[in-house]
Amino acid sequence: MNPSLARSAGLGFVSGLRTFQGLAWLAREGLPGPDQGHSPVPEQWLARPIVARGLGFLAAGELAGDKIPGVPDRVAFPGIVGRVLAGAVAGAVAARPGSKALGAAVGAASATAGAYAGWFLRRELGRARLVPDFALAVMEDAVAVGLARRLARIRG
User: Fold this and answer.
1) What is the pLDDT of residue 36?
2) CA distances from 4 to 14, 21, 28 (A)
3) Is the omega angle on the peptide bond into residue 42 within 30 degrees of 0, that is, cis?
4) Which of 88, 116, 118, 132 has its CA 20 to 30 A from that of 78?
5) What angle do CA 33, 34, 40 make, to 5 degrees?
6) Residue 128 CB contacts under 8 Å (≥ 6 apart), including other chains
């Protein structure tokens, strides 16, 4: 698989686990500074410091909010829509020029897969009472943050 599409898939998957992690880490670590119109629109937008800070706050808030009992399932509407859109944007940003549409599609599909995989795994482990839900959520956070950070740093 094309390395940039693999990165799109990974960042999409992360968006399925935690909506804002992929975009927040891309904005923080994965982009050059603000550009004078030489980059595609998503990259120009993410390169703005105010956007990077805002995404960072949203990502942190999501990590905290995920632990609150009664929060709707990630696969329920409208949450799944936000995850798929975030995965599409992250996938497009991660893709090489000329492959942005394919990167967006890969990111969206991977976000859907990540959302359902994370939801199913957490639900089943919770039902089996093998690990408390809070601990599962923290482990999922660690996977999402670590993977997003690593993938955001890859250039090319």
Assistant:
1) 45
2) 15, 18, 18
3) no
4) 132
5) 110
6) none
